[in-house]
UniProtKB/TrEMBL annotation, chain A:
<feature type="transmembrane region" description="Helical">
    <location>
        <begin position="359"/>
        <end position="380"/>
    </location>
</feature>
<protein>
    <submittedName>
        <fullName>ABC transporter permease</fullName>
    </submittedName>
</protein>
<keyword id="KW-1133">Transmembrane helix</keyword>
<dbReference type="InterPro" id="IPR050250">
    <property type="entry name" value="Macrolide_Exporter_MacB"/>
</dbReference>
<dbReference type="Pfam" id="PF12704">
    <property type="entry name" value="MacB_PCD"/>
</dbReference>
<feature type="transmembrane region" description="Helical">
    <location>
        <begin position="23"/>
        <end position="46"/>
    </location>
</feature>
<dbReference type="GO" id="GO:0005886">
    <property type="term" value="C:plasma membrane"/>
</dbReference>
<dbReference type="InterPro" id="IPR003838">
    <property type="entry name" value="ABC3_permease_C"/>
</dbReference>
<feature type="domain" description="MacB-like periplasmic core">
    <location>
        <begin position="27"/>
        <end position="235"/>
    </location>
</feature>
<feature type="transmembrane region" description="Helical">
    <location>
        <begin position="305"/>
        <end position="334"/>
    </location>
</feature>
<feature type="transmembrane region" description="Helical">
    <location>
        <begin position="262"/>
        <end position="284"/>
    </location>
</feature>
<keyword id="KW-0472">Membrane</keyword>
<keyword id="KW-1003">Cell membrane</keyword>
<dbReference type="InterPro" id="IPR025857">
    <property type="entry name" value="MacB_PCD"/>
</dbReference>
<dbReference type="GO" id="GO:0022857">
    <property type="term" value="F:transmembrane transporter activity"/>
</dbReference>
<keyword id="KW-0812">Transmembrane</keyword>
<feature type="domain" description="ABC3 transporter permease C-terminal">
    <location>
        <begin position="266"/>
        <end position="386"/>
    </location>
</feature>
Amino acid sequence: MGSLFSQIVTVTAMNIRSLPRRLWMSLAMVLASAVVVAVLLAFLAMAKGFEATMEGAGSDRVAILMREGAAAELNSVLTREQVNLVAESAGIARDAQGPLISPELYVIVDGIKKASGTEANIPLRGLNAKGMAMRENMHLLEGRMFTPGTNEMIVGAGVLREFDGFEIGKEVRFGKNVWTVVGIFSTGGNVFESELWADAAMVQAHYNRGSSYQTIRVQLQTPGDLAPLRETIEREPRLNLDIQTERDYFANQGEQLRYMAIFGRVISFVMALGALAGALNTMYTSVADRAKEIATLRALGFGNFSAFCGTVAEALVLAAAGGLLGSLAAFLFFDGLSTSTLGGSFTQVVFSFEVSPDLFMQGAALALFIGFVSGFFPAWRAARVPVVVAFRNGA
Amino acid sequence: MPQDVLFQLKGVSKCFVKGKEKITIFEDLDLTINRGDFIAIMGPSGSGKTTLLNMLGGVDQPSAGEIWFDGARVDNLSEGALTRWRARNIGFIFQFYNLMPMLNAARNVELPLLLTKLSRAQRKKHVETALALVGLSDRAKHMPGEMSGGQQQRVAIARAIVSDPQLLLCDEPTGDLDRTTADEVLEMLQLLNREHGKTIVMVTHDPAAAKYAKQTLHLDKGKFVQRELVA
Ligand SMILES: Nc1ncnc2c1ncn2[C@@H]1O[C@H](COP(=O)(O)OP(=O)(O)O)[C@@H](O)[C@H]1O
Ligand SMILES: [Mg+2]
């Protein structure tokens, strides 16, 4: 029936045009859905940004070796002898100078956060040129590489962004040691950008590590193939080490932070229930406000389906407007916003929020959910408004 | 001369249940309305005039009895069928006009036509004709809030007749208007009855308004107590 469509269009247009009569309630509903959508997007964008930071860091071509049972780099200790034994193993890629192996140190220093002015932990990594080459997207943004054997360091772009006093040429004091910043590096936005890098031998000296290290990174001959190294470790009793690919390592580190996405969904769902209660109230008020008009249309011969659809459409329009507003706010406030959080290894991981199109879809879905549910039940009532209401006295 | 029967109430009762109390408004009411009638229904407030009109319009159901329209029973139709029947045969005119405040006069008059298969151009023509009949061609674009009560009621009359129904049901159509304006509206109803053959049932408590009708029924305590014919 072609006329059903024009009935619905007319009723919907009338409802929308009558919104100014219910201005504040309608605005409250728009705002409530906006807030819910913005909160959802903020959490998802945070989780997404963190995930990207963690994922980008892990390479399948690099294996990381730590002392058995040390879940994180910070807790591991390795001797020079163990490093030498690993270097002789099969399965490691080589260049003209020998196996691609990077024994590294990983210590915690303090920095002052720009945003809050409070102290926070930053990892200081001691490594060699081969280790730097293993970070695939590593390049200098500014300045130059540190000179081995000196108190020079290069600073990750994330650290520069979030912490005070790491500009090129600045002298930085950690305890009794003074380091000079000579370069700023990027690793394409991943977790290594939250670190300070210096010569491994200098870190050993300043932190009384003797000849010990904390982790070994090796470039694998065949990406993902840990078997030859595993065999070496099993055969050699002095090598009580855990080995995993770098990708797996960071995936595990990022795991607990992935709960953020779940947490965000739970929070915004609970908030959505609150918004829903308000929206239902708005829509029931709308139906009561329009009861005489609805009844009059029914007296003229309009079906109750158009009253139903018009009410659902009104709710969808309000919630969608809120969803749009919330998405826009989330995008303006959060997209690219750089922040840092306690990483798995008790250090600050600097990462950016990412408000991506698929997140907008999730926000839109939530808004439409609020709109549909808050419209459905009042619409049911609208469809049941008795026609005699049109004849009740009083305007 | 044999009368052409349009509407018939046969033994109609209507009662409401309010809490434990059962209020009977009519008991065993009979009424015959012929094609071309212009009937005024008078009676004290609360005597059931609106309820009677609602039952005629298929808006309210009788508790017992039968309602026949044009040779067919209508009181037992389904809600959907009753709605379609109403759209085809009945035009309503309300005391407070019941115009849609967000729509201009022409769009208000167009509403019943949205239920037909008429094209947009045809609808526009019908709306223009109806507005011309009530003398409001120059107000087509005005919103209800920009018009006087009398003008709004004339828009409502145009809306009631635009789809050319046989029967107009009016509930206190002049109840909210001053004398002069009321007379204009009543003359218009008279014209629709005489020149356009509309059957009209009008509820009013105003004896001056009832004088425009061809006959007046007095409703009291659930019965028609008196039937006057105007020459
Ligand atoms: N839905 C209803 N429920 C209960 N009582 C009603 C209802 N509608 C009308 N009545 C009662 O029926 C009586 C007749 O009402 P009504 O038809 O509006 O009278 P009138 O139009 O003559 O003033 C009144 O006493 C009114 O209170
Ligand atoms: Mg009444």
